[in-house]
Design a protein that fits this description.
- By secondary structure, the chain is mainly beta.
- Helix content is 12%, strand content 32%.
- It has a domain at 31-92.
- The chain has one helix and five strands, in the order βββββα.
- A hairpin with a 2-residue loop joins strand 3 (58-67) and strand 4 (70-75).
Length: 97
């Protein structure tokens, strides 16, 4: 019998001891990033969900902590799309947080 995991999106691995610390800030509107969209995300079964958002040739990572009283949303600054993809891979593997 084959058992499939109900989660379709990846889970973030525990942060490694020497991980890179990302700077998280409150979201703020950037004219160049008005039309961003999530292109990758982690599983919503965890309390903290990460999304890699892209738009206008730039990208950033959004972190949403799902709380009983509402969600807390923070974002990184914007990088080039290629740089954001590298950081995204580091985040998923525990080398960045």
């Amino acid at each position: 019998m084959i058992v499939l995991d109900a989660c379709l999106s990846p889970h973030v691995v525990m942060a490694q001891r020497d991980h890179t610390r990302l700077r998280w800030q409150k979201p703020y509107p950037l004219p160049a990033l008005e039309r961003v969209r999530p292109v990758a995300w982690t599983c919503f079964c965890r309390a903290t969900v990460y999304e890699r958002c892209e738009g206008g040739g730039r990208a950033f990572i959004r972190r949403t902590v799902q709380l009983d009283g509402g969600n807390e949303v923070l974002e990184t600054h914007a990088w080039s799309i290629n740089e954001a993809r590298v950081i995204w891979t580091e985040l998923l593997s525990g080398r960045a947080r």
